[in-house]
Amino acid sequence: MESMPGPQGVPRRPRRRDRRGRGPRGPLAWPPVPVMTSRSARFDDLVLDAVQLIEQRLGRELTGLEVAVEDVPPTDPAPWESGIALGRLFPAEGALPARVVVYRRPVESRARDDELATLVHEVLVEQVASMLGMDPEDLL
User: Which DSSP state fits 72?
Assistant: First the structure.
């Protein structure tokens, strides 16, 4: 980096971030610790854990299924849904695979922290059982 001339033709030193001579700063982010993970990241982990439990219960992998998490359900509920949906199944159409969407905010608002994993599991079991034409009790 070449120095720019000052007001009277005297070359200026380039600016540096180490203005007070204390050396370079530390890392921009702390090492990841559980407290630093966001609520949405923790919820995503709960959903992944629930999918693994369902796959273990079935004894096979759910290859034709996509699982997604959205914050809130759309404002236009399906005619058969009463109240606020906790999850929704979108059946496979053509080349698109079946999708299960779990809505984070409604699920979180209905469960305490210690019950959240159970409720997420129940929502996923209900949707996957509906997709497979099974009784949800068989997957619990």
Answer: S
Distance CA 116, CA 22 (A): 47
Q: Choose among 99, 135, 105: nearest CA to 120.
A: 105
Query: What digits encode the pLDDT tens for the residues 22-58?
Result: 666 666 666 666 666 788 999 999 999 999 999 998 8
Q: Are 46 and 117 in contact (CB under 8 A)?
A: yes
Counting as low any pLDDT under 50, the low residues of the chain are: 1
Q: What is the pTM of this model?
A: 0.71
> Alpha helix (H) ranges present in the chain?
39-58, 104-109, 116-132, 136-139
Query: What is the CATH code of the structural domain delimited by 60-74+85-140?
Result: 3.30.2010.20
